[in-house]
Write a sequence for this structure.
């Protein structure tokens, strides 16, 4: 009935040994319950949007109120104005901001805007980076670094792919080469400032510096895809952590409090091009709907609780340290890249700083780990490329239970 049994491919268990994925009916705090009533500690966090856990009382209240007072008006509302102001208070670089329904739409429009502003059509993206499912970003690297792209998904026209230059992440030299060749045609460099889509991979300082310098030199804009990173590691953007400033920023996931949302914004003179003020079209029947926005407002309020991000980081550190100690004890090669409350588990001996490194990690070991943890009531992302996200309701007891499950799983893996 539903292709692959899933409404988004990453939910399938294809990458972790196949078979039917587990079906879930209810979430509460740090836990998900499957159709048989079994409880799982959830580190999938719906691929990133959840940070307060499932059915957080403040979000339930906001969503219930929206349900009672109307979920969709097709008119401006005071809620979206307040939400835009709160976003700008958290991320001052969002001089102006527009809401969409998804991260895909946010990045897609930011790129359209960059093309309109610069009058150019090419973009640089980084190998293995995911920016949603519009044609332009479903393009892989050509035969070498700094070559034009080829479609990575059927149905993406070759003509579209020719506008995409793909470069390895954390490779300043390849980036410089790409800008040397295509700089005069370049509208934007699109980047996750901290990668969340082939594991958590922080940028090396020289690499980020190169992105901004090269973009400035050739007249391209820098678009930060912060769909995962914003409000994940701190209240707001990661820009203050990195000491950089993007021209345009795309948001999504967390800011909707578990309801569909996306947003893009940035420099006022660029955002002035958005219709109806300017000639760049972007629209949405559901964009800025009261339910998503009121959930988002409640979420932003709750995220300002003192010590919240320190708490997430402490739990993630305990998990990461524990997993590394256990993997060492059982002779299993494991690399953990962690930033704040998010980390990734790559089964390899070598550090992971590019997509090629992540690809080289052992998928069969990850699949065995995923399945062992699932049997023991711990839900991880069903792909070696996805991150674990710690949520506010994860308790010390959950961390201990997770590490006990990991010990049993590693022991099993070592014996296999
Ligand atoms: N950008 C990044 C960095 C993402 O991780 C995702 C979703 N995984 C998207 C864009 C697309 O967002 P959405 O799924 O809401 O369209």
């Amino acid at each position: 009935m539903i292709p692959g049994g899933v409404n988004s491919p990453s939910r399938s268990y294809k990458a972790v040994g196949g078979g039917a994925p587990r079906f879930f009916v209810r979430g509460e705090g740090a836990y998900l319950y499957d159709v048989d009533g079994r409880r799982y500690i959830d580190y999938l966090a719906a691929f990133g949007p959840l940070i307060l856990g499932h059915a957080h009382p403040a979000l339930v209240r906001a969503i219930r109120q929206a349900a009672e007072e109307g979920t969709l008006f097709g008119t401006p509302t005071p809620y979206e104005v307040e939400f835009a102001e709160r976003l700008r208070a958290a991320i001052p670089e969002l001089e102006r901001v527009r809401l969409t329904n998804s991260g895909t739409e946010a990045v897609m429009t930011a790129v359209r805007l960059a093309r309109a502003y610069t009058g150019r059509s090419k973009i640089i993206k980084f190998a293995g980076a995911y920016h949603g499912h519009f044609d332009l970003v479903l393009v892989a690297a050509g035969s070498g670094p700094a070559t034009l792209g080829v479609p990575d998904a059927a149905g993406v026209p070759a003509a579209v792919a020719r506008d995409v230059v793909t470069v390895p992440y954390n490779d300043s030299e390849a980036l410089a080469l790409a800008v040397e060749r295509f700089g005069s045609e370049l509208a934007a460099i699109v980047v996750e400032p901290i990668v969340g889509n082939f594991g958590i991979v922080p940028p090396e300082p020289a690499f980020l510096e190169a992105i901004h310098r090269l973009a400035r030199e050739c007249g391209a804009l820098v678009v930060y895809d912060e769909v995962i990173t914003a409000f994940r590691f701190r209240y707001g953007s990661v820009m203050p952590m990195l000491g950089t400033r993007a021209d345009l920023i795309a948001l999504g996931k967390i800011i909707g409090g578990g309801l569909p949302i996306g947003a893009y914004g940035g420099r006022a003179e660029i955002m002035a091009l958005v219709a109806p003020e300017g000639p760049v079209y972007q629209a949405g029947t559901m964009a800025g709907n009261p339910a998503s926005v009121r959930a988002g407002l409640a979420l932003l309020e709750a995220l300002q609780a003192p010590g919240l991000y320190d708490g997430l980081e402490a739990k993630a550190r305990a998990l990461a340290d524990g997993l590394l100690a256990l993997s060492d004890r059982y002779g299993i090669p494991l690399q953990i890249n962690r930033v704040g409350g998010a980390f990734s588990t790559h089964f390899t001996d070598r550090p992971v700083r590019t997509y090629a490194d992540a690809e080289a990690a052992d998928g069969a070991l990850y699949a065995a780990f995923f399945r062992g943890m699932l049997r023991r009531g711990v839900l991880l992302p069903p792909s070696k490329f996805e991150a674990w996200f710690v949520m506010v309701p994860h308790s010390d007891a959950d961390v201990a239970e997770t590490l006990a499950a990991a010990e049993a799983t590693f022991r099993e893996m070592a014996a296999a």
The first strand starts at residue 24 and ends at 28.
